[in-house]
Amino acid sequence: MQRDNATHFVIGTRGSALALAQTRMMQAQLAALQPHATFELRVIKTTGDALSEKNLAPSPLGGDGKGVFTAELETALDAGDIDIAVHSLKDLPTEMHPRFVLGAVPEREDCRDTLVFSSRALASVRTSAADSQPRSLFDLPSGAIVATGSMRRQKQLQRWRPDLRFADIRGNIDTRLRKLRESGTWSATVLAQAGLNRLGPDLQDVILVPLAPSLVAPAPGQGALAIQVRRGDDRTLAVVAPLHHPPTHAQVVAERAFLQGLGGGCTWPVGAHAVVEEERTPQAQGTNPTECDPSDLATINSAKGIRPASDTSSIVSVRLSLHGVYWRDAEPEPRMGRVSAAIQPGATHADEAAALGALLAQRLQP
Fold first, then answer.
1. 95 in Cβ contact with 257 (< 8 Å)
2. Residue 358: which H helix or E strand, with range?
3. Strands 100-104, 225-230: parallel, antiparallel or unpaired by DSSP?
4. What fold, for 253-364?
5. Which stretches within 34-116 are classed as H helix?
6. Which residue from 339, 341, 364, 337 is spatially nearest to 352, judged by alpha carbons?
7. Domains 8-106+224-244 and 113-210 share a fold
8. Which residue, 58, 62, 148, 328, shows the most beta carbons closer than 10 Å to its own?
9. Residue ranges of the domains in the chain?
10. Residues near 294 by beta carbon (within 8 Å), at least 6 away in sequence
């Protein structure tokens, strides 16, 4: 459906509280950037929403490889019913239909998982005032029950705390917090910090302890949003382009390339965390030890035909590092590793980021 008003744009979103909060944030930013345009929000119900309402736990990817939280939004986008689709990037399949493009990847929110302690459960095991404020995963009581249905979270938590037990939990953020408060046996649950920040739920009687990605690697793309538009829709592409954040784009491209390279989609527990750092050469800033394996960059550049940057002390370089972990099938121990490389400054870094993610996946394959 084509609209006559060239300055009116329809933004499609899921109807969950978190999806609406995220989309309204993008709507406000677009309105501030484009004061002469109007941005209408339209709620579209997805297969994933319908399954969630039936108290089922849908995987972000259905059996046919389509995103259960994204397919209906893409249908509306393709039909011209909406101009922009706002997704949680981790819900998008790693291979997008060629009719669509990512018009922007806005700056990422906090990508960490957060351990949400139940104050009520902790009160029953406190022995002194010093025990009143948990600060880490290791402050959970011995044999504690953590409510999470995510195998990625369960596997990584058990690496550090084999004594932990787990209970399944369903529902949105508010529902999970309510269930945690009402439970007489659960000590904690795990939620994405990005969702907590964006939604701002009632945090009474709970204590938040963010988990370092080195302990619990987040889902690939966690904390990032995807602004999807129709390929060739230059009008809309120009409007959303100012939202784009290249460092975030490089991070999520690397993480998703790692996931895609494993070939397991969402069927294996997979965590990935990429970091982009800008730095000057040692002559400009002094030595800066890194975890770079020189062979990483050589392999990537050889594969992509990229010539090395000139050795100039004043140049600003960009370093991209990626940590990945996954459990393959029924293997008891994880496969994990890290790669890091300096990439050309002043570019989008998408090709280099994809190559880095593919390289790590290749290294961790059997």
1. no
2. helix 350-364
3. antiparallel
4. Double Stranded RNA Binding Domain (3.30.160)
5. 47-53, 71-79
6. 341
7. yes
8. 148
9. 8-106+224-244, 113-210, 253-364
10. none
Q: Residue 147's beta-bridge partner residues?
A: 167, 189
Least confident of 126-140, 250-264, 278-292: 278-292
Q: What are the structure tokens assigned to 118, written together?
A: 């139940």
3-state secondary structure of 38: strand
pLDDT in tens, 213-236: 999 999 999 999 999 999 999 999
User: What angle do helix axes 350-364 and 246-262 make, rounded to 10 degrees?
Assistant: 30
Burial of 78 (0-12, 13-18, 19+ CB in 10 A): middle
CB atoms within 10 A of CB 215: 17
Q: Which CATH number fits domain 113-210: 3.20.20.370, 3.40.190.10, 2.60.20.10, 3.10.530.10?
A: 3.40.190.10
Q: Does the domain spanning 8-106+224-244 belong to CATH 3.40.50.11550?
A: no
Q: Using CA atoms, how far apart are residues 296 and 215, in angstroms rounded to an integer?
A: 24
Query: 269 with 326: CB under 8 angstroms?
Result: yes
Of 320, 54, 89, 313, the closest CA to residue 220 belongs to: 89
The string of DSSP codes covering 270-297 is: EEEEEEEEEEE-HHHH--------HHHH
DSSP code, position 219: P
In angstroms, what CA-CA distances link 172 with 104, 195, 281, 361?
Answer: 26, 10, 46, 32
Whether 91 is catalytic is yes
Q: Which of 91, 113, 233, 296 is catalytic?
A: 91
- 7-66 confidence digits (pLDDT tens): 999 999 999 999 999 999 999 999 999 999 999 999 998 776 655 545 545 545 444 444
Q: pTM here?
A: 0.84
Q: What distances in angstroms separate CA 304 from CA 72, 230, 295, one per listed residue?
A: 36, 28, 14
Alpha-helical regions (H) of 183-275: 193-199, 234-240, 246-262
Amino acid at 125: V
